[in-house]
Amino acid sequence: MSAVAVAAAVLAAGTGGGAGGYSMRTDARFAPSLSYVAPAAVTYDQLLVPEGAWIEVGQRTDPDGATTVRLRVTGMRPGARYDVHVHREPCGADPAAAGGHYQHRPSDDPVAANPHNEVWLDFRADRHGAGHAVARHDWGFRRAEAGSVVLHDARDHTKRRVGCFTVPFGWVAAVG
């Protein structure tokens, strides 16, 4: 396991997964994937996500299932726009490893890809390369179905994946 992955695992702090809610915060520095095992935060494009850039993701899910996800970054390309979404799988050396977007109501219909059915954390880096975003929903993640945050190049109509951060998203058990 790389030093970056160890640091992310050590810094991840989660509580609960039961009826009392769930809270977690984790952070890491981006590194290129030099092997089949990707670091916790992997850059696929060092121009937009430079090696050493920092990312933090936090989640708070209330007992009723309402969820807030927060994102903060530093060290990004100043002025660049990023489309950021929660994806289904952990990051890998291949940008496609993170799978598709996590959807509250899974669907093959392209209309289902919207900020009400998915977690969107889009931002524009400021002149210092910092950015942040918050998404709030009245629903929570299903157990083991959300695994990462993927940064996409917002300028590219293909939404090319430029970075990925494996995140220990949690869930709240149904009450009743």
Helices and strands: which structural class? mainly beta
Instruction: Estimate the global geometry from the Cα principal axes.
Output: globular
Give me the Rg, rounded: 15 Å
Number of helical regions:
1
Helix content: under 10%
The count of DSSP E runs of length 2 or more, i.e. the number of strands, is 11
- For this structure, the CATH topology is Immunoglobulin-like
Poorly predicted parts: 1-11
Query: What is the average per-residue confidence, as pLDDT, rounded to a whole number?
Result: 89
List the helices and strands in order.
Answer: HEEEEEEEEEEE
Q: Could you tell me how far the N terminus lies from the C terminus, measured between alpha carbons in angstroms?
A: 40 Å
Q: What is the level 1 CATH name?
A: Mainly Beta
Q: Bin the strand percentage.
A: 25-35%
As for the number of domains, it is 1
* Widest β-sheet, arrangement of strands: 3-4-11-10-7-8
What is the CATH architecture descriptor? Answer: Sandwich
Largest sheet: 6 strands, mixed
Oligomeric state of the chains? single chain
Can you tag this structure with a few keywords?
176 residues, mainly beta, Immunoglobulin-like, six-stranded mixed β-sheet, 5% helix, globular, disordered N terminus, Superoxide dismutase family protein, SOD-like_Cu/Zn_dom_sf
Map the helices and strands:
Layout: H1 3-11, E1 13-15, E2 22-29, E3 31-32, E4 41-43, E5 54-61, E6 67-74, E7 81-87, E8 123-124, E9 131-137, E10 148-153, E11 161-166
Parallel strand pairs: 3-4
Antiparallel strand pairs: 1-2, 2-5, 4-11, 5-6, 6-9, 7-8, 7-10, 10-11
